[in-house]
Structure formats: C-alpha cells, structure tokens
Prior knowledge:
The chain is mainly alpha-helical. Among the domains are: 230-246 and 257-373, Serine Threonine Protein Phosphatase 5, Tetratricopeptide repeat; 563-665, Alpha Horseshoe (Serine Threonine Protein Phosphatase 5, Tetratricopeptide repeat), CATH 1.25.40.10; 834-933, Serine Threonine Protein Phosphatase 5, Tetratricopeptide repeat, CATH 1.25.40. Strands 1-2 form a two-stranded antiparallel sheet. Strands 3-4 form a two-stranded antiparallel sheet. Strand 1 (213-215) and strand 2 (222-224) form a beta hairpin. Helix 18 (377-390) packs antiparallel against helix 19. The radius of gyration is 46 Å and the shape is extended.
Amino acid sequence: MTGRRDFLSQPAPENYVAGLGRGATGFTTRSDLGPAREGPSEDQIKEALAKRAAQLGFSDAVTGKKKDQAAEEDDNDERFQDPDNEVGLFAGGIYDKDDDEADRIYREIDEKMDKRRKKRREAREQAEREEYERKNPKISQQFADLKRGLESITEDEWAALPEVGDLTGRTKRARQAKHQRFYAVPDSVIAAASNAGELGTTVADDGAASAGTSKSGADGTTTDFAKIGQARDKVLQVRLDQASQNGTSTTSGSATSVDPRGYLTSLARSQLPESAAQVGDINRVRELLGSVIKTNPDNGPGWIAAARLEELAGKIVAARNMIARGCEHCPENADVWLENIRLNDQRNAKIIAANAIKKNNRSIVLWVEAMKLEDDMRSKKKVIRHALDHVPTSEALWKEAVNLEEDPEDAKLLLAKATELIPSSVDLWLALARLESPENAQKVLNRARKQIPTSHEIWIAAARLQEQLGQGEKVNVMKRAAQVLVKESAMPKREEWITEAEKCEAEGAIITCGGIIRETLGYGLDEDDDRKETWLEDARGSINRGMFETARAIYAYALRVFPTSKTIWLAAADLERNYGKREDLWQVLEKAVNAVPHSEVLWMMLAKEKWQAGEIDNARLVLARAFQQNPNNEDIWLAAVKLEAENAQTEQARGLLKQARQEAPTDRVWMKSVAFERQLNNLDEALDLVQQALNLFPAYPKLWMMKGQLYEDLGKKPQAREAYATGVKAVPSSVPLWLLYARLEESMGLLPKARSVLDRARLAVPKSPELWCEAVRLELRAGDTKQAESLMERARRDVPKNKQGLLWAEKIWHLTEPKQRKSRAVDAVKEAENDPVLLVAVARIFWGERRLDKAQNWFERALVRDSDLGDSWAWYYKFLVEHGTPEKRDEVIKKCVGVEPRHGEVWQRVAKDPKNARMSVEEILKIVAAEVH
C-alpha cells in the first residue's frame, strides 16, 4: 500500500483557480452560504504566465512568441490597420481602363464557361428533380389508383355511406340528454318576460319625458332605444369597414405597425366597393395612420396615406385638409404636393402648384404637373421655360418643351440649345438629327458620336441615314461602329444587336438591319462554341416573331461562315418556301446546289420546285445536272422516274428504272420498279421483278410484303401465306410484315392461326405496341371483350410507358365506358403525354363533348408533336369539315400539302394503294378523313 493520496484528495497547486484556463473567475451569489474565494489578481496572473513562458523559452508571455517574431508580426499588423494606406504589393490602388478591360475579359470567360456547362447542368438538375419526385410523390399521385377505384362505386353505395360527423354529434347529444336535468321556471321570470316588450310614455319624477324608453314593472329595469339604434348603426358601420380592410396594419397590445407605402396603393380607390366583405375598418386604420404622422410628422407617405384614406371614406374635404397639413410639415416632399394638387380642383391646384414650386424650384415632376394644369399652349410654354431657367440640365424638361412646339424650326432651335447643355443625352441628339435635313443630320450625328462614343443608337441612326441617302450598300457604317464600340468597351451583346436589327426591319430599314447582323452576329462567339446551332436558334426566334428579313440576314451570315452546311441551306430554303417568293427560293436553292453539289436532297428540292411551277423541262435539266454531280445516286434516279411517271411518260419512266437497276442496283430501286409495275396493273411482270429482287436482297422486308400483296391481288391467298411465312423467317424484326401475315390468316377465317402468328411476332419483336394493339383488335373483332381487356393489361405491363399512346387510344375508345373516357384520358396523358395518337384521342373526346376550342387545341398539339402522321391531319380535317370555317380548312390543307405526311395506319394504307398512285396529297387527305372512325 502506498501512502500517496488519490488525485482528488491532493491539495491544489499554488494560486490555482478552477476554470482559469477557460477564462472563469471566482464570484459570489446570494445563494452562497459564505463568501466565495476571490480569484487571482492581474499581477498574479501575469507573474504566472511569465514564469511559464520562461520555462518554455519564450520571451513574450502573452502571445507565446519570441521577441523578433513578435516584433515582425507587430510590424505586419500595423501595416494593414489602415486599408486606405496600403504599401508594398497593394500600393497605388488606381483603377484604370486596363483594369476595366481585364474585368470584362474575366467576366466573359466566366459567362462562356457557364454556357458550356449549361446543358449538362440542366440535364443533371432534371435528373435530380425526377429522382426526387419519384422518391417523394405527391399525395394526389399516391392516391390516384384509389381515386380511379371510386369509379366502380354505385349510387346506392354512395348513399349508404354513413356521415361520420353526424354520428359523432348524435352520440354526444344522446349522452347530454341522458344526464340533463330540467327545473321549473319561477312566475316572476315569466311575468318579467311578458312585460319586456311594452312601451311606456310616462313622465319621470324629474320631469323628463321618457317616450323612448320601455319600463318593466317586475324588476324596474329601463331600456334606452336611442342607444340601441346607435349601437345598431355602429355595428353596421364596423361590418362595412371590416370588409375593405386590406391587411396592411397590425395591432398587438399597445404596439402598432403600419406600412404607409402599402396604403399608397391599397387606398387608391375613390369610393367603397359594393361588396361589404371587402370593406375595411376605416376608423381603426385612421387611428393607426394618425399615430404614424404624430410619431413622425416629416413622413410624407404617411400623410399621403391618411389623405387617401379620407378620400376612400368619401370625406374629400377632410382629405384636402389632411394633405394640406402634410404640405406644411413636409414642404420639400414633391409627392405630398402632387397629392395635394390631385385632390383639388384646377383653380386651387394651380395655386398649390405655385406654392410647391416656391419650396421645390428644382423638382422636375412639379414643373411638369404645373405645365399640365395650364389650358392654353402659350401658358404651357411659359411654365416650361421658367422651369428650364431653374433646371437647365433636365432632359425631361427639354423633351416636354420640344413636344410643345408645333413649328419644326423652333423645335430645332430648342434641341440645338438642349444638346449644348446636355451633350450626353442620346435621345436629344437623335431627335435633332431627325428634324434636320440629311446633310445637316449627318453633321449632327458626327458631333453626337464625338460627345457619346459609347452609344450604339447613334451609330445605327447614322447607318439608317446613309440608307435614306441611297448610300447604304456603299458606306459600311456598322463595320466602323463595331470597331469603335469594341475599342470603347461598349459593345452590346449579340441578343441586343438582333433586337436592334428587328427594330430596324419593323421600321423599314432593311439594309441597316442586314448590316447590323453582318457586322455583329459573330461577336462573343469563338470557333469552339456551337456557333451553327446558336445562329439557327437566333434565326428561328426571329421567324417566330415575324422578322423574316432579320432571319434571312442571319442565315446569310451563317452561310458565309459555313458555306457547305446542308442544314443551314435547308433552313434558308424553308424560310423562302414559307415566307418568301418562288424566285427567291429558286435563287437560294441554286446557290445551295453550287455550294454543296453532292447533296441529292438539295438537287431534288430544286427539281421539285421547278416541276411544281410547271417548268418540266427545267426540272429535267436540274436532274441531269444532279446526275453529273452524283452519278448512280438512287434518290436522283427515283426522282427522275417519278417526274416522268407523274407526267404520263410511262415508257421513259420504265426505261429509267431499268437503267437504274443496272447502274444503281439497290433494294430501293428494285422495290420502286415492282411498285411501278403494280401501279400499272402488270402483276405478272411485278411478280417476276420481285422474285429477282428477293434473290438479290432476301433481307429487305418490303419486297416480301409486296410479294404477298401481289398474290393477294391475284386471289392466290395460299401463295400469299407462303410468301409472308417465308418473309417473317427471313426478316423476323419487321412488324408490318407480321401484321400482314396475321390479317391474312384472319381474312381466311383462321382466328387461332392469326393468334398464333401474333404470339410468335411478339416473341420476335418484344415490347411492340403495334403488335399488342393488333392482338387486342383481333379479340374485339372476334367479340371476346374479356380476352381483349386481359391482353390490354398485359400490353401495358410489357410496353414502355412512353410508347403506350396507341394502346391508351385503343383502350379509351374501345374498352372504356363513354362516361369514364375523360378520366381514363387524364391518366393516359400523365404516362404518355407527347404521343400524337393519344393527343388525337383526347381531342376526339372534347369533340364528342362539344368543347370545340379545346378539341382544336389538342388536334394542333398533335400536329406540332408529329406533323408526319397523316392520320392526325385527317382527323383534324374531318373535325374542321363539321365545325371549322372554309378558310381554316384551306389553311390545314395547305400545311398538309407542304408537310407531305408519310405515316399513319390509314394514311399508309390509302396512299400506297395502287389505285391511288397518281393522287395528290390533298386528295389522299380527303379520302383518309372519310375512312377514319
């Protein structure tokens, strides 16, 4: 056993104070039984710190640093004590023009880097938002299935649902009635109640008449009907006032807070509204505003709010007196004077305006208001000139003075004086230039450019002046403007220049518009930026705003930078086709084929435009030139064949196809050859060609489809079945081939065989909405609705949600009761909102409900989503035949012809029928519109 004490039993070190290291000191409280020990003195603390520092080898006991180190840091601390007295690296803090340029460069770099990362950032944010919504669904989404389940509840079941609140109240009332006790009422109470309503006309002992009182002999109480009437009026007034309370004041105990600025707008009405539910407690607000102006009588908005409150209450005299007091307390507040002028008639307003100007002779708004109070033009000019004597550098006053002048010469004199006094006003310089002759205007603009070298408006005005003088093409003002503005670091952004160009176009300055785009569109964009897409987006924006000349200029500039871009050429041609002249379109396409001679699309567009204009020979010449640039191109071969076939040149077309099969033997050329013979009803020749083609291209599904259809046309269904069966083995991924095979089996009355074909098709091509939809339709045609519903549910589980538009449309129209179609459509739109087939189905629902505007909107949404779907055009046209105007129908036909749709269940069947081979798009549209149902 050691005799050493444990830690807690050891005596404390010398001068030890608990918590001293944490900054604690001893203190005494009332609850202490005796005096607490007093902490160490300051000398004792310093002595202890010095002793400890000496042991550790430091000379500075306070900071724990050596002397030289402490001295050095003290020197550094003193250096940065005064931020205005910087030395060393930070000496000479003069912010010059180079620093501005550096800041601008860094800012542009930051903007460019942010723009590069914008798409990735937006995609990431969208993914994070979708993930959050998936993990945290809304309440409405969580209970959507339960809501749909309510559709199956009958009216009797609804009626049988118990009222929970009624049951609770009934139980409570029964419990209270069980324990309630009743007592007999004394006769004195009954007697007092019977005499309570009697009127008395007795005279009191003091001689005063009490005709307006009612006395009860039972208890001696007296009722004052005058006070009752006053109370009733007061209650009515309070209710009316509470309805207009705007909520801008709050009262809590003795504290009151009012927002005077809120009352400036909320009390702007001159009379109480008719609805009593919207009238406020004016008395209470009056007290609050009175507290505001008493607390701070120099608060102008408070006086204005108080005056408007009285005006709102219909007390116009009180409002005038209130605002007059406000003018006395706030003589330098122009808003208070303006409110005083507004509340008074014209005669008094002039006097008030004169007094206001004496107190505020440099207030622009007061001078302008005083001018407006005058009736004759001479007095208005006199007031404005007095104002200019007091405030000669006010641009607003000079503008008012110029607007008052009727003689242009006098206006020019005023503007000349104004530009001398205010040389930095762009508007004044431009106004002077517009009033001068072209020669003098040029001098004015030159002086303005010297005074304001950073103004792009002056440069644009100079360019427009040159255009008016006929020198717009010769003098490139905007090129010089861009150079000067860049040098002055005052170059606007590309978007601002496009806005200025559109403004010039709207005012008829087409050459200036083109010059602005030509010299500024590339500013701020480097080669590593996506300049092509940026400029295409700019052009689309201008087209949407109806600024076609600006869009043409943007395309022209983009083509100078990217002369071989097929995308830009096609966009420029599309602009001319939709909004330009035919000659301009031909000119653009001629430039396009010269710039991109190996683009067969541009050649065919030019040939087609010549052909549609009736210039058949020129179209042939265009195709001949295309052959020279693109030998053995199948598209050009087929375009030439179509040109000859459409113009009834059968032998020439057949010869071209034969030559094409020899020089450009592609599967598409062979297919077109078979289709050509089939259209001419040469079925045997077509069969021979299709067999030769299949020997060369056995994996081309259209050839197998055409072989089967040819056998069907000949009435040889077994051979057609064999062709389809062989075709699906050779090309198992072709959905149309499977559909033709199944429909052939169904037409032959072999429903089990047709079901088997569709089952095999879904194994070969899983998740195909067309195959699932055909299986559902097969069961519906067979009359088995339950099996169709079962297949539909399986289809919805198998097919991705974004491809279920066709399935939803089928379910809505053939597997849903009419009353439930709308709610079913709501669920469908949530899952496949952008599917055009579904959008058309929704439009048909609104059509059936006679909500024609909504139906039209949904039809147009479907066309915007996919304009290549011919069935959508047909449904829309059918709708317009019943409910549209002839102009709207013609517009839809024109747009459909321009788009030339190629897809759609009914559209493809009608368009590819050999009997309709020579029909136009308009004729096919009308046939399809008659067939869809």
